[in-house]
Write a structure and sequence with these properties.
Length: 337
């Protein structure tokens, strides 16, 4: 195969019937591997250069969260295998989605020898808008039978298989899973005795000293930060890098639509909204750039996505800090008695 033919083969075909997308595994495997490898490589290199990973297992409870990370990795492997068995090669084009890449980054952040809270935080920042909109859609459908936003609308498409539906439910528990970890890593004392937390201007989280006496008082050294402590700004910077990688590679390598032998029909892909706004989203304003050349559409998508994602990420962190302050205040009152 000549170089020009190889480059042409790497790029996604505009023809949904192109056999390289649905008949063989090679292109789908390359696409998934390229997105995952690039995302993980950039996140690890950039993350470690910004802030050294933590190696104090007494503080980060590494053994506990490493086991949970392994469980998440087992779930992710099961998800890949189940969807590949159910839909064939085209299923692998779904794994460059930011939510799936975020799960992979979370597994790395938890399972690697030195845990990386910022990598896990980047995973939450990368997919928090999508996950929160999933909650909105889930509640609106349960109450009214309609999807207000539309990001979860594919769950009721006739062509969506039971396997896909069951393996999409992580959209409901993935953010709480990460939030529990970040809540613990935001401070440097064990969760059972941790004082309330406050977000700092630098993007991290520090313990707020309690005005307590006697048994409830905590020594000043208990709130010292570690080199690998969670930092919101670093996490969000890493997430922006990941979103850029996923968006660009998705536009280059994943098809807009592809033939599904199982469905005997054309399947809508539009991975990471790299071609247009998701078709189930009804707000016309969000579709103004649909069909625009990728040189214009992709940068506009990245600006829009981070504009939406940033405030949601900040709101989630503020909520975690508020919950931590409340839990710390209750603990202090109990210890005082």
């Amino acid at each position: 195969m000549s170089l020009s033919k190889m480059v042409t083969w790497i790029f996604a075909s505009k023809d949904p019937m192109a056999e390289k997308h649905w008949k063989t595994w090679s292109h789908a495997l390359l696409t998934m591997g390229a997105v995952w490898s690039a995302s993980a490589g950039i996140a690890l290199l950039a993350g470690d250069s910004m802030q050294a990973p933590s190696d104090d297992e007494a503080i980060v409870r590494a053994s506990v969260w490493r086991k949970r990370g392994m469980m998440l990795g087992a779930y992710l492997a099961t998800l890949v295998a189940a969807r590949a068995r159910d839909n064939g090669p085209i299923a692998l084009y779904e794994f460059p989605w930011a939510c799936n890449v975020s799960m992979m980054l979370t597994v790395l952040g938890l399972v690697l020898p030195k845990q990386r809270p910022n990598l896990v935080g980047a995973a939450m920042a990368s997919c928090c808008a999508d996950q929160v909109f999933w909650y909105v859609d889930f509640l609106s459908y349960a109450l009214t039978g309609k999807f207000v936003v539309g990001v979860a609308g594919y769950m009721v498409w006739p062509q969506t298989s039971l396997v896909t539906k069951l393996t999409s439910l992580h959209h409901l528990w993935f953010i709480p899973f990460i939030a529990a970890y970040i809540s613990e890593q935001s401070g440097t004392v064990p969760p059972a005795t941790a004082p309330p937390l406050l977000l700092t201007k630098e993007g991290g989280a520090v313990a707020k000293p309690e005005r307590a006496s006697g048994p409830a008082a905590l020594p000043a050294t208990a709130v010292a930060r570690t080199p690998g402590a969670f930092n919101a700004k670093t996490s969000y910077t890493l997430s922006m890098c990941g979103v850029v990688v996923c968006s660009i590679l998705s536009r280059i390598m994943t098809p807009y639509e592809v033939w599904s032998p199982k469905l005997q029909a054309i399947k809508y892909m539009n991975v990471n909204l790299s071609y247009e706004m998701w078709r189930d989203v009804k707000l016309k304003l969000l579709h103004v750039l649909d069909g625009v050349h990728p040189i214009i559409f992709t940068p506009a998508l990245l600006v829009f996505y981070n504009f939406i994602n940033g405030p949601i990420y900040v709101a989630l962190l503020a909520g975690l800090a508020a919950l931590r302050r409340r839990a710390g205040s209750r603990l202090s009152r109990k210890l005082a008695f």
